[in-house]
Amino acid sequence: MTETTDRLLTSEEVEKRLGVGPGWCGKDRVSTARIPHVKIGKCVRYKLSSVQQFIDASMRRSTCDTTRV
Q1: d(Cα 39, Cα 66) in Å, to the nearest integer?
Q2: Are strands 38-40 and 8-9 parallel, antiparallel or unpaired?
Q3: Distance between CA 22 and CA 49 in Å, rounded?
Q4: Which residues lie below 8 Å from residue 48, measured CB to CB, with a gap of 6+?
Q5: How many CB atoms are located within 10 Å of the residue 57 CB?
Q6: What is the dihedral of CA 17, 19, 25, 28, to 10 degrees?
Q7: What is the pLDDT of residues 3-44, one digit of tens each?
Q8: Among positive and negative, which fits the CA dihedral 18, 21, 25, 27?
Q9: Fewer CB within 10 Å of terminal CB in the chain, N or C?
Q10: String of DSSP letters for 11-49
Q11: pTM exceeds 0.85 for this model
Q12: In degrees to the nearest 10, what's the CA dihedral of 67, 29, 18, 15?
């Protein structure tokens, strides 16, 4: 693994990368925890590789497609 792959992102960085609203990561952690996270003291961080895996797993060919690419 490279240093870039293991880079830790803040919730704000993940939300910006995903194009979702503020607070999305917090809500996701409480409800479904689709992206694994690391807690360091009071700080929550996400591995860049985990975020990319979430994006890859969410790929669809059309809006009505329930199967993954």
Answers
A1: 32
A2: unpaired
A3: 21
A4: 4, 5, 6, 7, 8, 9
A5: 11
A6: -120
A7: 566 899 999 999 999 999 999 999 999 999 999 999 999 999
A8: negative
A9: N
A10: HHHHHHHHT--TTHHHHHHHHT--S--EEETTEEEEEHH
A11: no
A12: 170
Distance CA 31, CA 33 (A): 6
Contact 25, 18 (CB under 8 A): no
Position 22, amino acid: P
pLDDT in tens, 47-68: 999 999 999 998 887 878 776 6
What tokens does 45 get?
A: 């961080």
Residue with tokens 């960085």: 13
